[in-house]
């Protein structure tokens, strides 16, 4: 039989230290403050964009070396998993929702993969191409019908070829 | 008069291998007038910091190598040498699928925020861990914040499904 749960009351020390009625920020941020914080994110946009571009180069190189037999496929897939995860996380934060969507598609595809074959190489390559296009054409937000169709196609390809 | 949060009184530890992500969090915290922020790129270094000085809030990534954010939560919540088993932990990660959220929750994370994130989402979680601390539960295989956020009427002694 399960042991009875011991409930430990909330610890008040942090609240006691930081919450008051005179100094600091309201529990709900004012629109002006939200704007200020968003400007901080906006300022970071160039650095994030450069970082994503560098990750695309790294992914392309890793894929090429692995498909040419110059590097271990498992290691390349691991590197692509890591970079695509970072792109998935960074894209939407700086306004590139489509980068996040394609990054997620690629990340889902390579997650758990240990081996490469020509078809998988093509699929990863196409994802990287699409990420390049979004970055080069500065497509912020989720894009339009074309971008939606690309994502739908990636989804179908993922489903069909991941476990081949 | 409404309550306010004085973030200058709160210290943070950021654990993330992505330096840009860390810098962005630092910049946001600076705008909130936080002055005490440490950042490290591994769980091992996080342990060292936490052993050496008190920290009020940890913000950690899930995906790190060789140890993950889950390993950090495990150590803090259940480690024999944990410096503070009840420290609030916010997981900020691109590993946002349900399986990761559930795993983090079941190991004792306080708040989970998926990347990409927006500043309001981060702020809400900061407010939550500072102003609305949760009770902790200690039971067979779990030590961490009470996972039942919804307050519902119940008749049993432990608010369990089996009661």
UniProtKB/TrEMBL annotation, chain A:
GO biological process: phosphorelay signal transduction system
Gene3D superfamilies xref list: HPT domain
Name recorded for this polypeptide: Hpt domain-containing protein
Species whose genome carries this gene: Thalassobaculum litoreum DSM 18839
Automatic annotation (TrEMBL), chain B:
Alphabetic keyword roster: Phosphoprotein
Organism the protein comes from: Thalassobaculum litoreum DSM 18839
An annotated GO BP: phosphorelay signal transduction system
Recorded coiled-coil stretches: none
One Pfam family linked to the record: Response_reg
UniProt key word Ligase: no
Domain Response regulatory intervals: 11-130
SMART domains from the UniProt entry: REC (SM00448)
Keyword Phosphoprotein belongs to the record: yes
Protein name, entry field: CheY chemotaxis protein or a CheY-like REC (Receiver) domain
């Amino acid at each position: 039989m399960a042991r009875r749960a011991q409930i430990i009351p909330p610890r008040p020390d942090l609240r006691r230290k930081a919450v008051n009625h005179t100094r600091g920020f309201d529990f709900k941020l004012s629109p002006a403050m939200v704007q200020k914080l968003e400007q901080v994110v906006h300022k970071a946009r160039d650095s994030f964009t450069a970082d994503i571009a560098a990750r695309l180069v790294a992914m392309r190189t890793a894929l090429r070396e692995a498909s040419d037999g110059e590097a271990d496929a498992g290691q390349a897939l691991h590197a692509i998993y890591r970079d695509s995860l970072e792109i998935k996380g960074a894209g939407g934060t700086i306004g590139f929702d489509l980068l996040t969507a394609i990054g997620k598609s690629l990340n889902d595809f390579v997650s758990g993969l240990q081996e490469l074959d020509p078809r998988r190489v093509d699929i990863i390559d196409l994802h990287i191409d699409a990420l390049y296009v979004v970055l080069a054409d500065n497509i912020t937000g989720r894009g339009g019908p074309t971008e939606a169709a690309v994502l739908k196609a990636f989804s179908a390809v993922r489903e069909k070829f991941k476990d081949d | 008069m409404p309550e306010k949060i004085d973030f200058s009184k709160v210290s943070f530890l950021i654990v993330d291998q992505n330096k840009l992500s860390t810098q962005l969090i630092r910049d946001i915290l600076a705008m909130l007038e936080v002055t005490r922020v440490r950042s490290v790129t591994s769980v091992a270094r996080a342990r060292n910091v936490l052993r050496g000085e008190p920290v009020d809030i940890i913000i950690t990534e899930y995906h790190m190598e060789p140890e993950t954010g889950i390993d950090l939560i495990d150590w803090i919540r259940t480690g024999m040498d944990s410096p503070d088993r009840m420290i609030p932990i916010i997981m900020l990660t691109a590993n946002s699928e349900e399986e990761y959220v559930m795993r983090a929750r079941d190991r004792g994370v306080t708040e989970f925020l998926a990347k990409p994130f927006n500043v309001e989402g981060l702020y809400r979680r900061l407010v939550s861990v500072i102003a609305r601390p949760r009770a902790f539960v200690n039971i067979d295989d779990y030590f961490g914040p009470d996972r039942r956020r919804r307050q519902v009427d119940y008749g049993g002694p432990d608010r369990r499904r089996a009661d």
